[in-house]
Amino acid sequence: MRLQELLAHLHDFTSKGNANPFITSLEMDSREVKKGSLFFCVKGSTFDGHSFAKQAEEKGAVTIIAQEDVDVSIPVIKVRDTKRVMAVLADAFYNHPTQKLQLIGVTGTNGKTSITHIVEQICQAAGRKTGLIGTMYTKIGTTKIEMKNTTPESLFLQKSFQRMVAEKVETAIMEVSSHALDIGRVHGCDFDIAVFSNLTQDHLDYHGTMHEYRRVKGLLFTGLGYRFDPNRPKFAVLNADDPATLEYIRSTSATIITYGINQSSDIMAKNISMTASGTTFELITPVGSYNINMRLIGMFSVYNVLAAIATCMVSRIPLSTIIGAVETVTGVPGRFEIVDKGQDFTVIVDYAHTPDSLRSVLNTVKQFSYGKVIVVIGCGGDRDRSKRPIMAQIAVSNADVSIFTSDNPRSEDPIQILKDMEAGVKGETYITIPDREKAIFYAVSNAGEGDIIIIAGKGHETYQIIGENTYDFDDRLVAARAIKELI
Ligand SMILES: CC(=O)N[C@H]1[C@@H](OP(=O)(O)OP(=O)(O)OC[C@H]2O[C@@H](n3ccc(=O)[nH]c3=O)[C@H](O)[C@@H]2O)O[C@H](CO)[C@@H](O)[C@@H]1O[C@H](C)C(=O)N[C@@H](C)C(=O)N[C@H](CCC(=O)O)C(=O)O
Ligand SMILES: Nc1ncnc2c1ncn2[C@@H]1O[C@H](COP(=O)(O)OP(=O)(O)OP(=O)(O)O)[C@@H](O)[C@H]1O
Ligand SMILES: N[C@H](CCC[C@H](N)C(=O)O)C(=O)O
Ligand SMILES: [Mg+2]
Fold it and tell me: Could you list the residue range(s) of the whole structural domain that residue 374 is in?
């Protein structure tokens, strides 16, 4: 695409002359620049992309988009905010891919990965080709691409959507993090259905207050617009049991569909009954009631399934197909994943890394344990510090044995993170073992018949970040080794 053709999509920029080079790729990382690239100078938390403009030119870039002056001899387009412009131009460069498929965005503190995977499984049962973008990977058909972020930057996003369109994906399902909404990674995404799971404490390091966190999450719903296009109706799928839903209802003109267990809603679950191997409930919908028997367990899983059912209904999948698929839905790796090496106690690896998810998962296992509940829990470094004492308190209040350990300490001192956790626990017993492997081994060696060990916080992660280094570490493999060596 030629530069001037691309610039036709921008309304606020300055440039000298009318150069019109052919643009072969859009890049935000100078290391990725090729001959013919257009390079965006993005200010990050570690680097200022403007300082790589020269390097980009040397590597063959033909245009620079910057928000400050840069010293290069190729055309420079100066804009107010390079990241916002990047999202608009990525959408244009890749030929508006999200207008060519059905795009479902899922936001909320907990449950995004779970809901997107349930929706994916239902869509596939309906014979649709799907794409998925989220914490675990970007998946197009059966190809998986690993990423650093839950919601990637706009360049990667739009390129992925273009690939999905090329591969005839009909429905793309993505997790939309609050960071992405705030930074504008999803500007340029034309969502058809926006889904809200819940809002509880997390990421206060970034958003500052719950009020601000709630506002930012709401951008997904305000972004659905105030206009109604009969050819492309928009839907907001909202959790009636979460107080933030009232605000989100007010902020969009999209058609609302609610789900819930306690408050009256369009899609409801009643008469819920759980065993260690599954859950049954009565599904109430505007078109009838149905008995559901699914393999997922926990009240939180009922919420996730309700969200997925409501989403798939407005996505125009027949209810009979949805119900059939829900009964066979399997969990996501690292979410309530059981490590079974034939031992006489249960080991569960789970991704609970927020106060609410930890409480949910411990409440669930308490219902089925006929022995002790042992929890291994740490809190990530360079993340919300205020959740640490709360999570420690939730652990000691809900488990019989609490073992505090490290999660991903990142640049923080692991001992200080543990002290932050311990500050939340008054007069109750816990054990602190900073080395996560030793903590897991300790839990396994202290488990007896019928006990349940929950290893929380890292779920599917296959690494541990300590300082600048990333080490191989997988809770599931460490637990399996502990069982093999100790039992
Ligand atoms: C705070 C934050 O959001 N950081 C994101 C940011 O990194 P950064 O600000 O450190 O970038 P930087 O390294 O300073 O680089 C600035 C610019 O210089 C460029 N550069 C850099 C070096 C070089 O040699 N040449 C060059 O051109 C970079 O490509 C970039 O354009 O831009 C990166 C590239 O897009 C992101 O991967 C990175 O996310 C990091 C990994 C992160 O941890 N983000 C978290 C806070 C986050 O976004 N989390 C959410 C929510 C998770 C959840 O679900 O709970 C998420 O969506 O992932
Ligand atoms: N609806 C829910 N409500 C509360 N807790 C939940 C819910 N769904 C899942 N959980 C818990 O939260 C953990 C993380 O779930 P999931 O990965 O689906 O969330 P996420 O929103 O994608 O998280 P992230 O923000 O890290 O991407 C699960 O392992 C489980 O313990
Ligand atoms: N998406 C979350 C994941 C946290 C997982 C936990 N293991 C940690 O490292 O804190 C975040 O980046 O805050
Ligand atoms: Mg996720």
Answer: 337-486
